[in-house]
Amino acid sequence: MPEASCIVKLVDHHGVDHRVEVRAGSVYEAAILGVSRLRRHGWEGDGGTIGSVTVEIHKEPTVHRIQVGKMLGWINSSGRTPRDEIRKQKTKNAIERSKVTLRLESLPVKTAAFVKPMECESVSQLRQVSGWVYEIKLDGYRAIAVKAGKQVNLFSRRRKSFNGQYPYIVEALHDLPNDTVVDGEVVALNDSGKPEFNLLQNYRSAAVRIHYFIFDLLVYQGHDVMGLPLEERRKILHSLKFSSPRIHLVEYQETSAFEMLAAVKGLGLEGVIAKRKDSRYEPGKRSGAWTKCRVHKGQEFVIGGYFPGPHGFDSIIVGYYRGKDLMYVARTRNGFVPASRRQVFARLKDKVIPTCPFVNLPETHPARFGRELDAEAMKKAVWLRPEVVAHIEFFDWTEADRLRHSKFVSLREDKDPRQVTKEYCGKA
């Protein structure tokens, strides 16, 4: 992180708080400088025993609290000063950088250009095995950042330019090394610091809330690193430095799948991404080396039709792809306001076709929840080329593979309709 103001709080084994403010360039440095300064001011506790240490890094719009735990217990008996440890860490970092340089020389040369993003396989349960790491599933726009020479471009997963929408992210990414490509997600954070997709729709008024989270490195200084294991790519990635607080490097967690799902569900986040530590980056592929598991029910669906009504339509007809077949799952009426109806209808009105695109219509059995879409009801529908994707929330799936109580959330311009399949919700 760039040098920032940090509050270091130490709790001794009696439960007494001790606080000091320092400026530091990393959590590690802040923690040891804070301990040292408190001791110079007379704090000893019980023989200097540290119960726990918390470092609060002040960044707009949120305050990040990082639990360091008992990491600093070695200070009590090592005899080394904080500056000795900082010097030692800097030497270690320099050695790691030299190792990276030597390794890069043996890797293929590659031009920095757009790379089709690697995809996650949707699963209902995370694997409870070793060799996997976990990340929080971010609710934003997948984005590939390319710095070719000194020129930076930010692309959507479908290779559309994001430069006009997020110029401040593009500017912040000039800290990337030349001829480097990274994979990440553009995310808007709400007042509580959680990702909120709807804020991305108002990217001008919500500009201060928009950040870029980087989770993978594809090309580094003109060398192809996609063939390296994830662990090695991450080591190189975390050597990058960014001065802007808008740019974040995603940390992965080496914990149990159960604990990760429980934590994400408790925080009200969208889900978990699991990745094999030895996985190579496979552009455009969904190989199973990366998986995603949602903890809240909601996903993208393709709009294949609508029923006419106020502001253009009364409800939209949505489904997902099973192979080459578009499967109907719901008529969605809830979640719209007049403005969003007009916005959605503007995207639909020029896609009218004469025939139904869903292979499982008409319905021949009475619907348990809502109205069945039988042959008679279908006569009132307007059918569309299945080219528009919407994010839909719902209560549950029925046994007949239909949605219960579906609600429109937003359009997803970044999603390829052909990649929209049925997703699964995991349990903690």
Share in β-strands: 25-35%
The CATH topology of the largest domain: D-amino Acid Aminotransferase, Chain A, domain 1
The level of helicity is 10-25%
Output the structural class: alpha+beta
> What oligomerization state is this entry in?
single chain
Radius of gyration: 25 Å
Q: How does the overall form come out from the CA principal axes? A: globular
Q: Regarding CATH, which class of the largest domain? A: Alpha Beta
Number of strands: 22
Domain count: the total is: 3
- Tell me what the CATH architecture of the largest domain is: 2-Layer Sandwich
What profile does the largest beta sheet have?
A: 6 strands, mixed
Helix count equals 9
Annotated CATH homologous superfamily of the largest domain: DNA ligase/mRNA capping enzyme
Model regions low in confidence, pLDDT < 50 over at least 5 residues: 44-50, 60-82
Q: Whole-Å distance between the termini?
A: 33 Å
Overall residue-averaged pLDDT value? 82
Q: What would the keywords be for this entry?
A:
6-stranded antiparallel sheet, 9 helices, D-amino Acid Aminotransferase, Chain A, domain 1, 6-stranded mixed sheet, OB fold (Dihydrolipoamide Acetyltransferase, E2P), alpha+beta, 428 residues, ERH-like fold, 20% helix
Write a structural description.
This protein has 428 residues and is α+β, with helices and mostly antiparallel strands. It has nine helices and 22 strands. The strands form five sheets. Strands 7, 8, 9, 10, 11 and 12 form a six-stranded mixed beta sheet that branches. Helix 1 (27-40) packs antiparallel against helix 3. The relative contact order is 0.11.
